[in-house]
Amino acid sequence: MAxxxxxxxxAKLMDETCRLCGGDGRIGNALGRSTATCPGCHGSxxxxxxxxxxxxxxxxxxxxxxxxxxxxxxxxxxxxxxxGAQLAREVSESVVLNAEAKARLLAEIINHESTHGRCTQTxxxxxxxxxxxxxxxx
Length: 138
Fold this sequence. Notes:
Elements (H helix, E strand, L loop, with lengths): L5 H10 L10 E3 L6 E3 L44 H11 L6 H18 L4 H11 L7
Antiparallel strand pairs: 1-2
């Protein structure tokens, strides 16, 4: 068995024509209107030596693994109008709602104010009905 000689291997590669372009160094598109440099041989017409151009693309630096900081949500954090603030206070003081439902209703109040500009009477009745079930909506 013969020993591996990298120089001989490289010389053999340089003698072989490119598989993509057939040695022309150019590749045409399917319509035949334009040509471009062959990506396999970069225009030389000979097979490229891939061992010399190998580069490691693994991420080995610590900077690649920075923890991502969650961006704070933009927009209002609480109701902007007096009606919305009163409604939010009623929701937060409710004894029948759990914490998840209170958070959902508060987000609904903020969203309603951002789209409508203020809390409508119908919306306030709807929220109060959820915050105080069984009691009249005043």
